[in-house]
């Protein structure tokens, strides 16, 4: 609750003050109006005293009441915000969780496909090498610090419009909204080299860490599931080649990207044809 109070003090003071002042003014005005109507027949002396009471009593009651209501509404609003963030963000690494990462990347795919974008993007899958051994040898607390360290390095290596998500366990996904094969390789190598040089662990403990990275660069239109499958295949190539490596398809220019996309589109057509054939057979 202390964090909520700090949020209220930093962001909601103006709104609480406006709520308090507005509510107090309205209550006071209503009180004075009612008093003027019903007390007028009793003479000016009674009216004077009654108007004084009608002015001060609402102020004394409304200010603390509306202040309290305003604070509680702000706390409720911030609690809802934090709850939404908790549903979007991985609690340990502060990256997007898998569901949110997949949804936001898929939304970009859909938007760029709809606008027939000519831009190219990149997807990386990053996996910590021998992570179970790190947990077994150094403990799960060190393992958590390793994951936080990896996430920090990844976030520092990408731009504001890119997306970073924890896909599960020690695996991370990185979507680069605008990337060429060369820039994608540069980012991937920078992440790999930085993590290997930095290591991880609590309180400066020297926990050696390396990552294997698979990825691909692509043009639109394309399906997220197909691109993820290609990146995942490249990750396994990096693992099988000895780990602490980056593996990307040999895509040297945009023509290669378009050929790969056409192959993926052909695969989709084959799936649709097979599904229609199965339906026809059942009929």
Helix content: 55-70%
Please give the radius of gyration in angstroms.
30 Å
Q: What count of helical segments does DSSP give? A: 9
Order of helices and strands: HHHHEHHEEHEHEH
Mean pLDDT: 83
CATH arch. level architecture of the largest domain = 2-Layer Sandwich
- In what order do the strands lie side by side in the largest sheet? 2-3-1-4-5
- Termini distance? 61 Å
Classified in CATH, the superfamily of the largest domain is: Reverse transcriptase/Diguanylate cyclase domain
Low-confidence stretches: 1-8
Q: How many β-strand stretches?
A: 5
Main sheet makeup: 5 strands, mixed
CATH T-level fold name of the largest domain: Alpha-Beta Plaits
CATH class of the largest domain: Alpha Beta
Task: Quickly give the structural class.
Answer: alpha+beta
Shape: elongated
Beta-strand portion reads 5-15%
Instruction: Provide the number of structural domains.
Output: 2
Descriptive report:
This protein is 67% helix and 11% strand. With 283 residues, the chain is of the alpha+beta class. It folds into two domains: 2-88; 98-275, Alpha-Beta Plaits (2-Layer Sandwich), CATH 3.30.70. It has a five-stranded mixed β-sheet, sandwiched between helices. Helix 1 (2-11) crosses helix 3 (44-88) and helix 6 (140-157) packs antiparallel against helix 7 (181-198).
């Amino acid at each position: 609750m202390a964090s909520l109070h700090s949020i209220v003090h930093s962001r909601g003071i103006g709104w609480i003050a406006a709520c308090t002042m507005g509510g107090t003014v309205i209550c006071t005005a209503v009180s004075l109006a009612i008093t003027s109507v019903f007390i007028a027949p009793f003479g000016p002396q009674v009216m004077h005293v009654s108007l004084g009471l009608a002015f001060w009593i609402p102020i004394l009651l409304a200010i603390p009441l509306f202040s309290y209501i305003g604070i509680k509404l702000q706390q409720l609003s911030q609690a809802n915000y934090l709850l939404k963030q908790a549903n979007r963000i991985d609690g340990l690494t502060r990256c997007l969780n898998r569901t949110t990462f997949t949804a936001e990347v898929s939304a970009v795919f859909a938007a760029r496909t709809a606008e027939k974008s000519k831009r190219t993007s990149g997807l990386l899958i990053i996996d910590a090498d021998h992570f179970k051994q790190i947990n077994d040898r150094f403990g799960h607390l060190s393992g958590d610090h390793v994951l936080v360290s990896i996430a920090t390095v990844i976030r520092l290596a990408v731009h504001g419009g890119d997306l970073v998500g924890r896909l599960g366990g020690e695996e991370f996904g990185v979507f680069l909204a605008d990337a060429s094969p060369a820039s994608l390789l540069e980012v991937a190598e920078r992440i790999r080299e930085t993590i290997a040089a930095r290591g991880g662990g609590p309180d400066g403990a020297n926990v050696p860490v390396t990552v294997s990275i698979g990825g691909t660069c692509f043009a639109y239109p394309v399906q997220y599931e197909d691109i993820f499958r290609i990146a995942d295949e490249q990750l396994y190539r990096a693992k099988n080649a000895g780990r602490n490596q980056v593996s990307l398809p040999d895509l040297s220019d945009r023509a290669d990207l378009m050929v790969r996309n056409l192959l993926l589109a052909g695969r989709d057509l084959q799936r649709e044809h097979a599904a229609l054939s199965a339906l026809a057979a059942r009929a």
